[in-house]
Write a structure and sequence with these properties.
With 199 residues, this protein is an alpha+beta fold. It contains four helices and eleven strands; from the N terminus they run αβαββββαβαβββββ. The strands form three sheets. The chain has a five-stranded antiparallel β-sheet, with no helix packed on it. A four-stranded antiparallel β-sheet has the order 2-5-1-6, covered by helices on one side. 19% of the residues are buried.
């Protein structure tokens, strides 16, 4: 009977039992030293895989970095947290038969990223850099980090395409004051920062 997910790594013989498969690959890929690896998941199930692994295999620590995405819905702005890397999550674990099996059979898991023969560990520094970026909110909030006097362009709305000069943040959250250049004159305008881009 075919497995319900693709093999985690390599091309193991499907006619062999799981213990026999483990014995075949144990000399080449097992490593008791924990490292960061990346799991490729099915779309939109990263949280489910994370929860499953935390309940079923305490030796695996999952890390799913998130980013704030702002979208327009029914004439209002809605912010949601979504995976920074859709369909991927990081796991800190030793590469053993137990963790390999836990990842392989986690609902929604497709495979560990590797070179076709073995999983490839992610440099610790990469995960540390992502974690630093998440501070202090616990997720990434995208902003323009504009300085007064910076040139900007409106991306959406009735003033789309017009350029101007960033003046300062406005009193309301996520709104900024921009001096737009229109019809040969400069007009002040309050606009959501998400509607702007640097020129």
């Amino acid at each position: 009977m075919a497995s319900r997910t693709p093999e985690v790594v390599g091309s193991l013989h499907r006619e062999l039992s799981i213990p026999e498969q483990h014995r075949q690959v144990s000399l080449s890929i097992w490593n008791e030293t924990p490292s960061w690896y990346v799991i490729h998941t099915k779309p939109h199930v990263e949280e489910r895989v994370t929860t499953h692994l935390s309940l079923r295999c305490p030796a695996i620590e999952s890390f799913l970095p998130k980013i704030e995405i702002v979208r327009r819905h029914a004439r209002r702005r809605v912010a949601r947290l979504e995976p920074m890397f859709p369909s991927y999550l990081f796991v800190w674990m030793p590469l053993t038969a137990a963790t390999w099996t836990a990842v392989r059979w986690a609902p929604g898991s497709r495979r560990l990223l590797g070179d076709g023969e073995r999983p490839i560990a992610v440099p610790d520094g990469l995960v540390d850099a992502i974690r630093e970026r998440l501070e202090p909110l616990g997720f990434v909030r995208v902003g323009l980090n504009l300085d007064a006097g910076a040139r900007v362009r409106v991306k959406s709305g009735p003033f789309a395409g017009l350029e101007g000069i960033f003046e300062r943040p406005a009193s309301r959250q996520d709104r900024v004051r921009v001096l737009l250049e229109m019809l040969g004159t400069v007009a002040p305008l309050e606009i959501e920062v998400f509607q702007l881009e640097k020129v």
